[in-house]
Design goal:
Order of helices and strands: HHEEEHEEHEEHEEEHHH
GO molecular function, one term: RNA-directed DNA polymerase activity
Strand order of the largest sheet: 1-5-4-2-3
Oligomer: single chain
Largest sheet: 5 strands, mixed
Strand content: 15-25%
Number of strands: 10
Protein name: Reverse transcriptase
CATH architecture of the largest domain: 2-Layer Sandwich
CATH class of the largest domain: Alpha Beta
Number of helices: 8
Organism: Cucumis melo var. makuwa
Structural class: alpha+beta
Shape: globular
Mean pLDDT: 83
Number of domains: 2
Distance between the termini: 44 Å
Keywords: Nucleotidyltransferase, RNA-directed DNA polymerase, Transferase
CATH topology of the largest domain: Alpha-Beta Plaits
Pfam families: RVT_1 (PF00078)
Length: 286
């Protein structure tokens, strides 16, 4: 998995020369694919602490259509070659399935729902985080082509987002709320001038390089005056709502029950500060 500095499309993007020089200097932080080796051991590795006395969960592999089986074999070979997984003989076993991405490609997911029920939930770009030593067998997955355990954090583990968030906060601790905002694998770098932005980007890239974390270039945008982040539009020091969220609220059917009203308020209340007309409507609802 890679870390986008801003998860927006960058087609047709014009990048200033001073920013391009930074990108060229740190081109090794934006490889075409992750290095074919395990990430380093860090202070933050993903631990899987089970409920005391829990029996290791094991299920059979899910059935798949021929095209999915071909994709499964391909992705397993890639994970084996990168040493992210290894053959396993463990009492654990979670079936695998695919989730379609926005670009139509398939993401391999492990159905850890049974394991997650037995995992102590702490607080609830993953392949860049190691599984804590001794916990690898708990990640075992079963497929038509064999049984494997993960050496890196897999999608679907209950505390994986918390682990990744802790890692990112640790890496960028000295820059948080000064010129960096991080949410899971999204990093926003904000500045008041282009020169300042260049210096801020250099510091962020240097942190990524020092910690052997990598960026997916095609998911990055640089030197933007307007950006979308967590459902909001940020532009020239102002925060607004994404058009899709406005349409969803505007076109919401009139609630006919308390539960329907709660559903509407759940969508609208977090955004009430961004719209005076919405504040009025919510006041009338209350």
């Amino acid at each position: 998995m890679a870390i986008p500095l801003n998860s927006s499309e960058n087609s047709g993007e014009t990048v200033p020369k001073e920013i391009m020089r930074v990108l060229e200097k740190y081109h090794d932080v934006m490889p075409d694919s992750l290095p074919k080796s395990l990430p380093p051991r860090r202070m933050i590795d993903h631990e899987i602490e089970l409920v005391p006395g829990a029996k290791p969960p094991a299920k059979n592999a899910y059935r798949m259509a021929p095209p999915e089986l071909a994709e499964l074999r391909k992705q397993l070979d890639e994970l084996l070659n990168a040493e992210f997984i290894r053959p396993a003989k463990a009492p654990y076993g979670a079936p695998v399935l695919f989730q379609k991405k926005k670009d139509g490609s398939l993401r391999l997911c492990i159905d850890y729902r049974v394991l997650n029920k037995l995992t102590l939930d702490l607080r609830s770009g993953y392949y860049q985080v190691r599984i804590a030593k001794g916990d690898e067998s708990k990640t075992t997955c079963v497929t038509r082509y064999g049984t494997f355990e993960f050496l890196v954090m897999a999608f679907g583990l209950t505390n994986a987002p918390a682990t990744f968030c802790t890692l990112m906060n640790q890496v960028f601790h000295e820059y948080l709320d000064k010129f960096v905002v991080v949410y899971l694998d999204d990093i926003v770098v904000y500045s008041t001038t282009m020169e300042e932005h260049r210096d801020h980007l250099q510091k962020v890239f240097q942190k990524l390089k020092e910690n052997q974390l990598y960026v997916k270039r095609e998911k990055c945008s640089f030197a933007q005056e307007r950006t979308n982040f967590l459902g909001h539009v940020i532009e020239c020091g102002r925060i607004g709502m994404e058009e899709g969220k406005i349409v969803a609220i505007r076109d919401w059917a009139v609630p006919k029950s308390v539960s329907e009203l709660h559903s509407f308020l759940g969508l609208a209340m977090p955004r009430r500060a961004l719209s005076h007309s919405l504040q009025t409507k919510l006041f009338l609802c209350n």
